[in-house]
């Protein structure tokens, strides 16, 4: 009974939180919890402690990986552009759509936060509406607050 139950008359009697003919199916959903607090990122079903992703674009242990989705950089590019430089596609709607992160301006690229800090960090290089490159980092801290550092 894979150590998760007792065999009685060749039938497994499973301990609480386990099921299946060999008690090999955990009912614990903790391993299926995505970083947003949803089971399987809301894109799958937790079966035996493993996510079975129902949205074919998403994969990985908690259905959070999406190879064809916009990356963090592309996703936040327009908001960073309007907040930092007052231009871009979201210039007119910036105050409604783009206040979901804290923004800090830095003088140069070497002043941007570097990898090795506790929060996951993305380094971004994007083109603005004038076809110029701009650089920023995007990170989310343990309180779920998004922080953007952008080069002036």
TrEMBL record:
Keywords: Disulfide bond, EGF-like domain, Glycoprotein, Membrane, Repeat, Signal, Transmembrane, Transmembrane helix. One of its GO terms (cellular component) is synapse. The keyword Nucleotidyltransferase does not apply. Residues 73-152 form the Integrin beta subunit tail domain. One of its GO terms (biological process) is integrin-mediated signaling pathway. GO terms for molecular function: C-X3-C chemokine binding; collagen binding involved in cell-matrix adhesion; fibronectin binding; integrin binding; laminin binding; protein kinase binding. The keyword Lyase does not apply. It comes from the Eukaryota. Gene3D superfamilies: 4.10.1240.30, Laminin (2.10.25.10). Pfam families: EGF_2, Integrin_B_tail. InterPro entries: EGF_extracell, Integrin_bsu, Integrin_bsu_tail, Integrin_bsu_tail_dom_sf, Integrin_I-EGF_CS. PANTHER family: INTEGRIN BETA SUBUNIT, INTEGRIN BETA-1. This is ITB1 protein. It comes from Grantiella picta.
């Amino acid at each position: 009974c894979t150590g998760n139950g007792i065999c009685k008359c060749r039938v497994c009697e499973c301990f609480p939180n386990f099921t299946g003919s060999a008690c090999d199916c955990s009912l614990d959903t903790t391993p299926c919890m995505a970083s947003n607090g949803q089971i399987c990122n809301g894109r799958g079903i937790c079966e035996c402690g493993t996510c079975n992703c129902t949205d074919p674009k998403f994969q990985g242990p908690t259905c959070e990986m999406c190879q064809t989705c916009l990356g963090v950089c592309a996703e936040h590019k327009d908001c960073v552009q309007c907040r930092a430089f007052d231009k871009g596609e979201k210039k007119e709607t910036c105050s409604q759509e783009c206040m979901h992160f804290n923004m800090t301006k830095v003088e140069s690229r070497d002043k941007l936060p570097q990898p090795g800090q506790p929060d996951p960090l993305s380094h971004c290089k994007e083109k603005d509406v004038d076809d110029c490159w701009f650089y920023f980092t995007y990170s989310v801290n343990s309180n779920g607050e998004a922080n953007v550092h952008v080069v002036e």
